[in-house]
Design goal:
Belongs to the HAD-like hydrolase superfamily. SerB family. This protein has about 300 residues and is of the alpha/beta class. It contains 13 helices and twelve strands. The chain starts with 8 loop residues before the first strand and ends in a 12-residue tail after the last helix.
Amino acid sequence: MADSPSFSHILVLVANRDATSLTPVDIQAARDLVRGDAPVTLSEGEAVEIACNAPATWGQPDIGAMREVFAGRGLDVLVTPRANRRKRLLVADMDSTIVSCETLDDIAAHAGIGEKIADITRRSMNGEIEFESALRERVALLRGLPVSLLERAWRDVKLNTGAVELVRTMRANGARTALVSGGFTFFTSRVSALCGFDENHANTLLDADGHLTGAVGQPILGPDAKLAHLRRLAAAGGLDMRDAMATGDGANDLAMLRVAGAGIAFHAKPAVRREITSQVNHTTLRTLLFAQGYRADQFVTA
């Protein structure tokens, strides 16, 4: 990690390895823009960190403008305070964050009502309609469908790149990790096991006689519950919110993203990107480890 004591912040520049790689020109441009220290390589051609002062001291460009400068190259830029950089708590959303899909939409697709439910999901995740009522509306459309559809939808679920490394590296370094989703326990329990989360929390799809009832267990796990889990876990560990990292993509993640010391919008909806400064828009979940100063050779995969 960068160790220049005169700088209060760290800028991390990360490339999407599937599309491009960092060049000396990219790195020097970032260093010049923030008048930063010598770069430190975290992953050759993929990630570097540069010690710098707080964004408020940069003048122009600000972090948003810097993000745009590098967006065309498929690069992400994150700036974090040096203090409390290594987080001791991770709270992560599941759908479109830890996994690449929206699991409720996948259930609906197998039932032949995919577009109808997906439209409600899009509006809910962008904050256009309230989460709890949108969830009830979508689940009601599943009434009478066989529970076996969940198994079919599970076969479509794929972990996003870096999910296992993120969870297992943080756990190996003493962090508590929790998967907290507005989705369903049928999926979170399995995703949690694959990644190695300490715990998982989600909603429950109710069924009877092998068919979905069209109802969801109460209380619904929505934005307030996600924030409550973040606060509970921090308190249980004797942690300050500065010790916590939260990540998600939808409007129902905003409450926890606002409060966590590192609230990172991951390939997020427009409403989330408008509010949350720390964003991963081009790269993978590996970037959340680089933001904490982990080198790629320190990542844990098993």
